[in-house]
Amino acid sequence: EQTPTSSPRQHLGSTPWSKCGPLEASNPEAATEQSPTSSPRQSLGSSTMGTQGLFALRTQEKIFRAALKKEKDKCAKKVKTMKKNLKTLCVKMNELKSQLQELKLSGIQDFLVIKEAAAENDTLAVIILDQVLNFAKKKPSWKEATIRQCIVARNMSPGTYEYLRSSRTLKLPCRKTLEKYVGPCGGQVGFSDLVEKRLEIEKENLPSPQSRMCSLVIDEMKIQQRFYYNRQRDSFIGQVDYGNAQPEEQTAGSKHKKQPLANSLLCFLLNGLSVTYKIPVAYFFVKNLSAEDQLKTVLYTIRKVESLGFKVIRLVTDNHKVNVLTMKHLCGGQLAPVVQHPVDPTRPLFLSFDYCHILKNVRSQFLDRDLGPSQEISSSHIKKIYEIQKGSSLKAVRNLTRKHLYPNNLEKMNVVRAVQIFAPPVTAALEYLEEEAGFSCDLSFGLVHPTVTFMKHIYAWFLMNDTSNCKQHIHQRQPESRHFDSVDDSRLKWLTDVFLPYMTSLQNASTKKHKLTAETFEALNLTTVSMVECVKYLLLSCRFKFVLTRKFSSDAIESLFGFIRKLAGSNDQLDVKSTICGLEKILKTGIIKSSKGSNINSDESSMTRLPIFEARAAQETKKLNEVPRQVALLLASKHRHTVVPSEAAAIALVAGYLVRTVQEGMECSACLARIRKPGPTETSDRLILHQDRGGLIYPSKTFLDAVKNMKLFFDSAPVQDLNHPLKALVDAAAPTLALMEPFSCPGEETHGLLMGTIVAKKFFKPLLTNVAQGVTDVLDLFKYRACKPLKRKLLKM
């Protein structure tokens, strides 16, 4: 098929060697055997093809080896580069390790720890982090936790807070920043909108039914009788106020007589039984509170709390006679530990008195009198121990001092010393002296066994009412202080089968002068039964895993009162104004911190933080919203009222000040010319003349007469019975003043109303403050003494 002129080399060159396999090129005989009919020309071509295939194979091998060598060199180069990079990374790693060690030594690691703790909302870490981040800022921004703590710190001691800021010891938020966060004082009394918001926020963080079960604690705190005019709210504060729970008799009588000034704060506080929260839910300002009125406030508060999803399981208070009568009314006349719940009849409501108050009463009566049918229970044995070790440097009973055995009225309030009287160190010392009676000590110590038995019973009763955690009994090695987790607990049976029969038999067998008072024994009996029944109810019906009885006490509300006093600068005598401000700050910040030296075991409230929101104004409980018409007519009277010269001079001085306020608020020269004059022309101007150094203003005769009418109008108006006295007075006076001669402007009709409004506001506002101060001065108790007392404490009392 090839052309006849083609050479063999050309024929071989045209053969497709790329299609020949290795076997075909290396075994020509096989190719010959496969084609027995091949011609010589074909044989020659096959031989040439085998040689060429061998050559191509070797060429391919060389190419492969070259490529392999190139790839090997490339990989070797990569390995060399990676080794070099690894060495560089090892050097860098060592450098970073050394730098990290330096950072650890320089405190950066501590800062990172603080930052991690701040991310977990640790208060201390957040405050420290704010100090660092805002150190160089001209306009610092603060975390919410920092602002809350600064609000509390500044209210406790404004001077110390401002010193820390001014001396740059700490960088803290300024006063305006804190005031913006807290907002204005709403002044609501009773179950306020702020309380309702607090409970709603708290309920969102309490998902389980047990966490919403709580104890309602009631207590009173004495306050000073002071009458204030609050300029921000334009209202008077300081009078008796029941809020929305005001008794009907009080509401009806408020139309005809003035409310007296309050001297007590009646407060209601929620204390969680399974979760720690302490929330003041209602507060009222009262005076000489009756049991009927208190019962109305109790029922009102329980209904309000229950309507928001919380369940009031217990009602706790001290055994003051008003509180006892209130509970009797709630029980239907006879005290009972359990009554029907006023909101849900299917549920029980447990009534109890505070066990700390009962313990103090028992202690006081134990020290004052001998108990028992034969007066065998006596504190004289403890007093003998005190006398024995009084002058010794080494004492067998450490906590036994004059304050324990001979306390004054203020020292009797201390709970810790009351507990220490019945504690094991004292009973152990008595038991030892009983064994040594007649040998190394007085023979009278041989009769201490009834006293020791009584003291041990009281101490065990207190421990069972004061269980605070699940490890207390392990660390103190006192089985009585273990938490309650079973209804078959032997301590519950001991309280009902041993303790109560012992106290009842002792009470029945003793004479009136040698036994506990009927009120104390009744409170002791009621509280014990109520505690046992409540523990069983919580474990069985409410499915509590365990119960801590310290949550049954009124420590939470005592802590609240102490913190309110601290917010007012550690003032023991608060008034209505400082009490309301303190309560609202507690509700907004969620912080209740008790004093270290107080009777309170609870330290700090763990209430959920309340978001910032606008505080609503206080509810209006009075009826008058405007000045009576017959009073308003006095302002338009053209009759000149005679006043004494001293009062006329004072009115002229105030009128000159009013002219200056008009001059600062208006630019109309025609209006100013009608109310001022160039110099003194009347006798009443001489008071201004004696004080004038060139800057005082003399009012005109017509303007002075108008101010006198305003004074008569103010004195005749029932300012204490008005909801917003300043607004009511200005609304009644300004239109009338605008029609009077000195206020009428020939150029502009609106100037008269504007001038009348300015003058009325400036004139009435300080007079309202003076009215409130006058009421306070009338009721302020002060005793004149011929000479200074020898005891400085008498001056404080």
User: For the report, how would you describe the main beta sheet?
Assistant: 6 strands, mixed
Helix and strand composition category: alpha+beta
User: How many distinct helices?
Assistant: 32
Global Rg? 46 Å
The tally of structural domains comes to: 5
Notes on the structure:
The chain has 797 residues and is an alpha+beta fold. The protein has 5 domains: 75 residues; 73 residues, no CATH class; 197 residues, Nucleotidyltransferase, domain 5 (2-Layer Sandwich), CATH 3.30.420; 193 residues, no CATH class; 151 residues, no CATH class. It is 53% helix and 7% strand. It is built from 32 helices and 10 strands. The strands form 3 sheets. A 6-stranded mixed β-sheet has the order 5-4-1-6-8-7, sandwiched between helices. Helix 14 runs antiparallel to helix 22. It is flat and about 145 Å long.
SSE arrangement:
Elements (H helix, E strand, L loop, with lengths): L7 H6 L8 H5 L1 H7 L5 H67 L1 H12 L3 H11 L10 H13 L1 H9 L8 H8 L10 H12 L8 E10 L5 E3 L4 E3 L10 H6 L10 E9 L5 E9 L4 H17 L3 E7 L3 H11 L6 E3 L7 E6 L1 H14 L11 H9 L13 H4 L9 H7 L2 H12 L13 H16 L7 H5 L13 H20 L8 H23 L14 H13 L8 H14 L39 H4 L12 H21 L3 H7 E2 L8 H6 L6 E2 L1 H16 L8 H14 L11 H30 L12 H5 L1
Parallel strand pairs: 1-6, 6-8
Antiparallel strand pairs: 1-4, 2-3, 4-5, 7-8, 9-10
